[in-house]
Amino acid sequence: MKKYFLMSGIVLFLFSCKKNESIPVEDKKLNDTIVTQKQPESTSMKNAIDGVIFISTDSIKESKELDVQLLQKIAPQLKIKYSDIKVDKTSSISYNDQIVFFIITYAEAFDNKEKDVSLERKYVFANKSDGKILASESDAELSHLEDEVIQASKSIIIKDLIKLNEETAGIAFYTDLGAGGVAQYWQRKFTIITFADSNIKKVLNNYTIGRGNSEMKNDTTDKIETLEAGLEVSKNKTNGFYDLIVSKSFVYEEWNRNGDEDTQGKTKVKKETEVLKYNGKNYTFDIKDKMRFLRNVNE
Predict the structure, then answer these.
(1) The whole model's pTM is what?
(2) At 35, which helix (H) or strand (E)?
(3) Residues 6+ apart with CB under 8 A from 178
(4) The organism sits in which domain of life (predicted)?
């Protein structure tokens, strides 16, 4: 387990629709805060799934779509050279029969003495027929220097849309942030995006569905804690959107270093369930959620 965890840290270091939703009478007072999700009439809900989305992040099935010719048409509209696009870190999915969604990673050089290069992330909805951009948005939270310690991986898009209500489908994806070294660290951030009224909307932004940390207990023992999460769409709604049920498993392990062979020591497991509710604008959660066993990494 430890060797797998350490390898994960090293790998992460290297690659680093709708008509207006009717609102229950008791929620009428929220009218002024609820953003109407009017989606394109052609949005197909037949590919949107509910129920269990994934039981663990390792079980997530990735969208394998990537129309390179369409990407070449999109790049000039964004004022990005196609040669600057990191195709191996770019992903896409069909939103419906006419629209495609891209997560584009591209290099941008700084005009300074150090010749720094940053890797930027941009979300784009475009027409499949001609590549015309319908909406685009940069994500500064996933931007970093090419040689920065904390690196962002390719964003992995789930191959199926998520059914948020009877008329709204969301695109879900996760991105790994990680670093290697003496103290191993990584996080898996999960986001859900909708396309409404020609605007990109993050209804869930950078929610942690995976995490790993380690620290030294003493000269011969390492302490490791990992978080693994599963996701399910509830049958209950809040402000027009289904609640999201997150199952969490925190695993604590101690590993004793004995020359070439490590041996496992103490192990603890803590399981929790969290329900994410839509507040009229987005799904809310505690952004300061902490690890359960390694207290020092929360400081």
Answers:
(1) 0.81
(2) none
(3) 8, 9, 11, 12, 13, 16, 150, 151, 153, 185, 186, 187
(4) Bacteria
Tell me: the pLDDT tens digits for 98-120?
A: 999 999 999 998 766 567 899 99
**What contacts 155, CB < 8 A, 6 or more positions away?**
89, 91, 103, 105, 121, 142, 173, 174, 175
Q: CA–CA separation, 155 vs 142, rounded Å? A: 10
278 token code pair:
């839509």
**What pairing do the DSSP bridges indicate for beta strands 117-127 and 133-138?**
antiparallel
Distance CA 230, CA 232 (A): 7
* Percentage above 70 pLDDT, the chain: 81
Strand, helix or coil at 86?
coil
Asked if residue 246 lies in contact with residue 227, where contact means CB atoms within 8 angstroms, the answer is no
Which helix (DSSP H) or strand (DSSP E) does residue 277 occupy? none
Q: What is the distance in angstroms between the CA of the first residue and the CA of the last residue of the chain?
A: 25
CB 276 within 8 A of CB 285: yes
Q: What DSSP letter does each residue of 94-148 carry, written as one string?
A: ESSSSEEEEEEEEEEE--STT--EEEEEEEEEEETTT--EEEEEE-GGG-EETT-
Give the count of beta carbons closer than 10 Å to the beta carbon of residue 64: 10
DSSP 239-273: TTEEEEEEEEEEEEEEEEEETTEEEEEEEEEEEEE
